[in-house]
Amino acid sequence: MYVHIHSISVSYVSSVPTRFKSDTLSSDNFRTAMRFSLGLDQPVLVAAATETADHPRQPCGHCGVTFPTAEHYQTHALTVRAGTAGGSTYNTHNHILEAVANCAKAVGVAYAIGTTFQGVRNADGNCRLGNYTDGHGVQREKYADIAFLDMPQRAFNAQLVYGDVTHRTVVGTRGGDPVPVHLAHLRAGAALQVADAEKTLMYDQALRGRQNEKVAILGIEAGGRMHKHFHRLIDTFAKFKADADAGTPDDNTSPASIKFHQSVFSRTKSLLMGRIQVARVKCVAERIMHVTRPFSRPQVSPASRPAPARLGPATTRLQQIRRI
Ligand SMILES: [Zn+2]
Predict the structure, then answer these.
(1) If you average pLDDT over residues 203-219, what whole number do you get?
(2) How far away, in angstroms, is 172 Cα from ligand 1 center?
(3) Residue 78 pLDDT > 50, yes or no?
(4) For the residues of 225-239, what is the DSSP string, one character each?
(5) For residue range 110-130, what is the model confidence (pLDDT) as tens digits?
(6) Contact 9, 45 (CB under 8 A)
(7) Which of 71, 180, 230, 321 could serve as 185's disulfide partner, Cβ 3.0–4.6 Å?
(8) CA within 13 Å, CB half, 13
């Protein structure tokens, strides 16, 4: 039994594609995500937690800890820090950011990336906000994850709209055991409310005195719930595309043209929402499937960095230094 599972996981490791594609799900991703959403134990984690005379439990590939049940492993997979931030193993944050960037590209909204992305630190001047004081009282310079360079003003009532992607899980551990966090089992969207409060505090500081600028909180929970700003961004993108394809409706627009506009809008909206949700499902599934895989940080060369879509004149190194 153990040998069989082991051989599957080894052959999987050797066939893992070097480039993570956030817009496609393997059948393993799908099965894992389906079990996750139904609250079923994952066979790979049941095997990891099973201790026999011949085989000890399989440790977490990041911190070497073993757990008594599959549920413990799953909670750990969803909360281990190595799974979240930019440049980390599973890179959940950046895969969702990549999906957002792909959505912008799909509808023709120009953007710039302002965070470590695909192994490259992007300190793009377009994404530079002001300073804020972190939890330890240290002043830090804040860059948005993404800046949308030509968004229509009406959506966020701001001339410049930035995005901050955040993935939040609703489980945590207490005394080593899985528990819901932020009373998320009693209040729907509780994890997003906490994210909203944290981010609002930080961006109120970082955008002090910049009245016409707004950071959209692109928050998504492990279960799929999205922050209202995320919904608004997708709606804005879909409207941008519908206006481009069908023209902006006004008093003289014919009923047929209005209908065409509406159909482009709804088709685009469901397409973009699908991309975001597929990225989220894939990240959750990959973390659950591979938590016991030995940790190795992916090495990415700066040369593989893709060019940002429709960027204006490049910010030179000198300009960046001058702004700092
Ligand atoms: Zn671990």
Answers:
(1) 90
(2) 13
(3) yes
(4) -B-HHHHHHHHHHHH
(5) 999 998 777 777 888 899 998
(6) no
(7) 180
(8) 14
